[in-house]
Specification:
Layout: E1 6-9, H1 14-26, E2 35-37, H2 40-45, H3 49-65, E3 70-80, E4 86-89, E5 95-102, E6 110-112, E7 115-117, E8 123-128, E9 133-135, E10 144-153
Length: 155
């Protein structure tokens, strides 16, 4: 699986965004690294329809751009406090996505090699999980909030 970046709008219900923001702000932020809580969506957002709604909306956008059938979707919330960043890394053989929930000005950039992706609030970006990427330092006075995840497709 090799492809570039695919970016699209992902309008989500304001009640979902509100709950994601609440969950993110409940997360502890004592260091410069992003806080990634893999189960927070299940624990905090999942009161039935909310998790199903979020998955459905992500998959709708995914299916517009890919013919692959989804086997599994795993996502988490990232909270980058002021000064926070993410070191270069990959996710392996999957399709990775980032949904930009709350992106204050100067709160860091999603970077692939030398390409800087325009992180626009309310959009989702899909990319090959083997593509090395990182997030630059949050130079704002506010937290940067994203939902990231991996989609495993059926072979």
């Amino acid at each position: 699986m090799v492809f570039g970046l695919i970016s699209d709008k992902l309008p989500i219900h304001r009640a979902i965004k509100s709950r994601i923001m609440e969950a993110a702000y409940e997360m502890n932020s004592h260091n410069r690294y992003p806080l990634s809580v893999c189960d927070i969506i299940d624990k905090e957002v999942n009161n039935g329809w909310q998790l199903m709604y979020l998955n459905t909306e992500i998959l709708k956008v995914f299916e517009k751009h890919f013919d692959d059938k989804v086997e599994k979707i795993h996502h988490w919330i990232n909270k980058y406090p002021p000064g926070g960043f993410q070191e270069p890394h990959t996710h392996g053989d999957c399709i990775t996505f980032v949904y930009f929930v709350d992106i204050p000005e100067n709160s860091g950039d999603l970077v692939f090699n030398k390409y800087i992706h325009d992180s626009v609030e309310g959009t989702i970006c899909f990319f090959d999980g083997n593509l090395e990427h990182h997030v630059t330092k949050n130079k704002s006075s506010q937290d940067r909030i994203t939902i990231a995840g991996n989609i495993v497709v059926k072979l």
